[in-house]
Write the structure tokens for this entry.
Amino acid sequence: MNSANLVKRLMSPAGLVVLFAALVVLNVVLSAVPARLDLTEGRVYTLSDGTRQVLARLDTPVVVRLYYTQSGDTSVPVALNTFAKRVQDLLAEYEAASGGRLVIERLNPEPDSDAEDAATRDGIDAQVTPNQEKFYLGLAVMRRDAAAAKADAPQARGALPGATATAAAAASNAVASHTVAIPVLSPERERLLEYDITRAISQVMQARRPVIGVMSAIPVFGRPMEPMLGRLPTGPWIAIQELQRNFDVRAVPMQSTRIPDDVKVLLVIHPRDLTDAGEYAIDQFVLRGGRLIAFLDPYAFFDQQRNLENPLAGNTASESTFPRLLGAWGYAMPLGKIAGDLTLASNQNGRAMPTLLNVQGDALNKDDLVIGQVGTLMLPFPGWFDPLAEGKPVAGLTATVLARTSPNSMLIDPIVATLTGDVAARGFQPTGKAHALALRLTGRFPSAFPDGPPKVDVTAPVPLRDGAPADAAPVVHVPADPAAHLAKAANDAQVVLVGDIDMLADGVVVEIQESFGQQVRVPRNGNLDFLQSLVEAFAGDSLLGGLRSRAAFSRPLTVPLEIAERAQQEYLGAIKALEDDLIQTQDRLQKLQRARGPGSTFTPSAEQQAEIDAFQLKSTQTKAELKELRRTLRLETDRLELVTKVVNIALMPVLVTFAGVGLFAIRRRRLAR
Amino acid sequence: MNGQAAGKHGSSFINIAAIVRRELSGYFGSPVAYVFLVIFLLMAGFLTFTLGRFFERAEASLVSFFTWHPWMYLFLVPAVGMRLWSEERRLGTLELLLTLPVTLPQVIIGKFLASWIFLAIALALTCPVWITVNVLGSPDNGAILTAYLGSLLLAGSFLAITSMTSAMTRNQAVSFILSVTLCLFLVIAGYSPVTDLLTRWTSPGVVDVVASFSVMTHFDALQRGVIDLRDVAFFLSVIGFALFGNAVIVRSLRAG
């Protein structure tokens, strides 16, 4: 074939059509090929190693059912549809990486369809669009054999081999096949999407969920109504609810003399009034090689109790500690005082609050597997741990500080704990050293009860303060068996001590946002992350821990915020003082003028008139000063914005103009020669 | 065809480079290029900080910057490319050009590359805004990098289309209008208000297909921070197809 002829044939309108078709085919083929380069910080759109490892561990086929309503309802926001597309993209990555062991099923639950029934059965929640239509976007993970069983017997719901467990289900120890559902996939939680999906897969594969024992003087599991004590019911803490999604979480009574053997991780949250028996139980648990996570607090703002010493003083924040264990391990947590830090102070309405710590950056130990993944921690009114001897724990233990204060810190008296701004900074005398807010101890632990179990009167009444866990299981009132006493550690154990419990309270960990009629919990900080990662790391599926904090919280423009904050610190104090002044002056003015009211025979003397005039003058002056100060407040911010705009809009064009003019001048000169 | 001897594969790179150099020096020798650069930079900066509400959003990202690119390119790129072939046709220098020891594909690619490089320079001159956002906060620079890549590919696509339309006519204005129209279709096929409207008439599947023909879909995808083969392939397909069309048209001009 003549090559010129061929070229001529190709380079024709017909050839153009052929090329078009070829390109379309190419693009379609490529759309099935997952080839991408993820350049985002933290590689947010790529499957992480943890997920790949979980997928590699799959020993039976797993089915992931994605329920996504595509009914052409135009009131569904486009952002939700693009998010759904990204979910599908991510699931495609899962499928590709699983080597065939994971299969994605896509269902479209339109109203009154079979798919909708399946969605309800699998525990997917319906959202409502502005057009009053039902909209589903969620997924359910199950093992293939369970899926088949379900398909065969759709009517016998009660007889299904595995119970359908929705996210907030109570601790169910359903063995073998069960369905794990993510009822709503929300764009607000997009960056945790990979974690949520991998966790669901991991849960489905587990025969039994690890047991986490929770020992707490606070009703973290919720509390029923107690009309006699005038108390309303409370629900379980969000932190506990989140743990319940992955684990079998059980309450362990504070007075237990022995921690049950099947508890893998013991979570102690605010052991207020810990008895000797309880402390002994914890001691022995650690010696048996258990894993302990303890949240202690010298000032628990979220657990206000009657002050037993001074009952008339109203409720005050309570405290908790390990009276003997800490000392045995080589540490002490100063009680009756709060750790304050000017460098880590958080910003409350423009004023710095040194007792509400915003722990981030250098204050977190980036080398630690758990805390290295956490972005920031918010610790309200924490305590710190000081080593008793030379910065080291007792022999046989290794200590790793997970979070610490800056050297610009000191212990603050509770009375002044809630102060902010300049007032709080006044009189601050930093210790000049960093102190541990959270630390991890590993190794062979010494016993705090070397002489055997403490003498405990198991019939003695529990101290009368509120907070007994709602679902107090039958208390293990068996005197500790002296024969089972361990005087020293049988195995290596791990303990994490944290000096604050307020960080786990609902209001501190999440913000509740509305998303299409559904309430979504959006984390405010890394607190919940921290707890979950810790528990996960201790409970053994360490793979999940690495997945969680790839979420970056919002990226704000920090410099304008800092400037605004600084300006406020400088001027807000002055503004407030002036405002107070003004109010006082106007008050006095009013009083004087009222005396001259209608029907009054009061006539001011020359002196009094002078006073009135003086006050009026002062009032005008103060108002002017206030106006000036308020203007100054925004001055630096406005200047920043102006400079930024000028540089970005005008700078380059000006340079280009000069370059152009310059080049022409040079050329003119060259031509003139 | 004459000139085969010198225009062989081995020296095609040299030929193309020569053409690029010729075109670029043509650009920078005329005040038009500078005027274009100034207009582009002023518009980009102005739109980012006022309509784009950069400070109000208080976010360390360049979304308020990149969101304007498709609309800016819609008019500015045809303005750059409209003279690529129209000028040669009008002045009659087209034949002269093709008697030189270069092949037609080399000329097409060379001219296209020169203009693309010019646009790349314009894009590079917007770096103050990237520096600014890094000074004021801590953005995801990977995402910004891929967004710049997307912008460059988008500009290239519009340019290739303009190159094709400019070969169709001697009149630069006609070339401009044709190009703007074609590019407009490519943009709005994936623009959300339009796709939302389309879903009323057809199924979401069809809308998806239509949207996948749009530059907006792929441009938005590149802004996330992920360089996906699909998106790059799309832009390269558009460029390849338009330049091929360009070749077909010029060939037919010579033949006729």
Summary: The two ends of chain B are 16 Å apart (CA to CA).
